[in-house]
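Researcher: I've been going back and forth with a colleague about how STAS domain-containing protein might be arranged in three dimensions. Neither of us has a model we trust, so I'd like an independent prediction. The organism is Allohahella marinimesophila, in case that matters for your notes. Sequence below.
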Amino acid sequence: MSKDYSARLADIVSDNKDQLLDVWLAGLFSKLMRRDKAGDAEVRQKAAQFLPLLADTLKKSETLNIQSPEWGDLRQLLEEISQSRVRQGFTPIETASFIFSLKEPLFDHLRKALGDDSKQLADSIAVTSTLFDDLGLFTVEVYQKAREQVILRQQQELLELSTPVVQLWDGILALPLIGTLDSARTQVVMESLLEKIVETGSEIAIIDITGVPTVDTLVAQHLLKTIAAARLMGADCIISGIRPQIAQTIVHLGVNLEDVITKSTLADAFIIAMKRTGASINTSESRQQRA
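Model: Here is an independent structure prediction for STAS domain-containing protein. You can compare it with whatever you and your colleague have in mind.
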């Protein structure tokens, strides 16, 4: 049944390609919430590629299992369509409709070809429906994976943007932290800080936690790991932004920060860093110059 069905459907697609394309696109465009010339042109191009590729695949394939090697080129085309629709902001339903909109036009041509044989017609429509359900679900699966990759990339970019390493002075870096520290963010913080230490040859890194809402055992461990990594690169760390509540929490948790310099404000930490690097600012001369 599957081989005979494949040959029959391949002939229907090949013999009625232009008619199928026109009806298919009309139904497809009617389901899109938003349209533009560039998007419509891309859909027409992919649809025009899909029909002959479908016919060729049906002719050469021994199975209707779309995961088989014979269906590889068709799967690749559907992957390109799904990934493109993710970038353009289409929904999963709009993505799957590229396949599902072709069902009814094919059913119409099957009725014309097999109208005198109701059993064969019913069987052919059922097999066609199953095949296109599989193809439609494949587009949704690819869409979801591509969407997850976009989200992960955006999260990574946000993490990098939320952990800027600033050079305050020659040999002095500042790393202001805002929000909660978790394992993933700590890794980004550590990498950003170490790269900046190597780039600038800085001796002191100020980690400011004024914007960190709470400090628990996990957050403290992340801070200690970052400090240890910086020390291995030859830079000492100063933690600033230690508020009374955070100081009490750290003591209560029994976190050992005895060998780490801590200050309540970034300004205090900066003064300590200036002294340790041997730098100084003459405020009197600076005021006279401004005057």
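Researcher: What would you highlight for our discussion?
Model: I'd start with this: The longest strand covers residues 204-211. After that, consider the following. The mean pLDDT is 86.
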